[in-house]
């Protein structure tokens, strides 16, 4: 498949914010926060729990706003505007993480929550752009290419950080805390450089009709969608399944390093493991796009043991189900379910960890959510037919 200019712009936004995803969310900031919290007298289990609660609160804010924001973005030329509104504050505040004194662990969490809001909100509009840049027949491959290039971009940004880590701050030029702050600067610059094409030139092809009062009309459209929800039963049941199985994926991203530190894994080894995971996710994301073309995206999701493939094909599967002119509104619901799962998972891990005193038991408690999501997804064709018969 030949990828056109608009699709490359879209794909490289995933490359762009992947630096934030791996360096801030997954790899460096959790370890940095735990070190700062430990110096302030916070126990390891409590700092892990606080990290989980911060992730949950940040995603809660976006979750509550997601359907309305999505509806607002469906008007002509609105997606790119809203993408910029959320992305630029997130970039600036990511730089702010590097400027904040290391002793201020409460403010560190607060700034992180704000960056999560910008990052997650921006991804809502980025995801909904998929229906504008790719027709149904190309959506699996384009979505998979986005996730694959995102993982590769994250690997390269991560290697820059590792160069500082393994050379002890470029032969002493940076302190241990300075290396962490350097990674936040990398994440912000990476985001600006590679996100610029979509932020500046992203084109929206599908939209609802322009109105005089978009806010009032968006509330009205949301009310209609809820009122006629029976028309979208297949979409609804897919979102229920997605809510459960994506929970495990998102929680792995946000909690893995904190749990690894609690298990006594050395920081350098932890970073190398994360690098290998990112490298593996890159080709497997592309592989699942190819597999979906050869079989179907539903079949590929069922065998989606690779987190990149599972994420990519869930997005494209949903994009093929929804009405294109209201894609942002429906991706708002997609994101609210994904974000609510991201709230539930870290809270479960935090509570079970504090209750048992073992991070590994907290992580293991997530397995039931994968099982529930799989069962509902397996039953999806039958549930859709039953719903249609009732209508």
Automatic annotation (TrEMBL):
Signal peptide range: none
Domain of life (superkingdom): Bacteria
SUPFAM superfamilies noted in UniProt: MFS general substrate transporter (SSF103473)
Pfam families: ATG22 (PF11700)
Membrane-spanning segments: 12-33, 53-75, 82-101, 107-126, 147-167, 179-199, 235-259, 271-291, 333-355, 361-380
Membrane topology: Multi-pass membrane protein
Cellular localisation: Endomembrane system
Keyword Electron transport on entry: no
Keyword annotations of the record: Membrane, Transmembrane, Transmembrane helix, Transport
Predominant cellular place of this UniProt entry's protein: membrane
Record bears the keyword Transmembrane: yes
Name used for this protein in its record: MFS transporter
